[in-house]
């Protein structure tokens, strides 16, 4: 009888202790962790085919991570890991040909006049 009571007590203590860790985890404050290049659609709307890499860098800034093997492809990546909620991630990929912007892809809408060069 004493052995059964002891086993039940040990199991109950373990269950209560482990469930307390989950509750404590929700009570601990964690800071939001932003990483990468934060871009807005209004900044991306300024891009045009034919812009040089210097012009793109002036509008959007340099990408955080440079690709040592392919200088003609810039990847702007932004990720926010909030204290609570879903991870927010956006990316913009710009392709250049001999230092001139040729196309874009990613999570941003292509500007309506993206195909119109700045010289026009």
Question: What would a concise description of this structure say?
Answer:
With 120 residues, this protein is an alpha+beta fold. The protein contains 3 helices and 4 strands; from the N terminus they run αβααβββ. A hairpin with a 2-residue loop joins strand 3 and strand 4 (100-106).
Walk me through what this model shows.
With 120 residues, the chain is an alpha+beta fold. Helices cover 32% and strands 25% of the residues. The chain is built from 3 helices and 4 strands. It has helices at 2-27, 41-44, 53-60, and strands at residues 33-36, 73-81, 88-97, 100-106. The chain has a 4-stranded antiparallel beta sheet, with no helix packed on it. A hairpin with a 2-residue loop joins strand 3 (88-97) and strand 4 (100-106). The termini are far apart. The mean pLDDT is 84.
The residue-averaged pLDDT reads 84
The run of helices and strands is HEHHEEE
Which radius of gyration do the C-alpha atoms yield? 25 Å
Supply the number of helical segments.
3
Number of strands: 4
Keywords summarizing the entry:
120 residues; alpha+beta; four-stranded antiparallel sheet; 3 helices; 25% strand; rod-shaped
In terms of topology, how is this protein built?
Elements: H1 2-27, E1 33-36, H2 41-44, H3 53-60, E2 73-81, E3 88-97, E4 100-106
Antiparallel strand pairs: 1-2, 2-3, 3-4
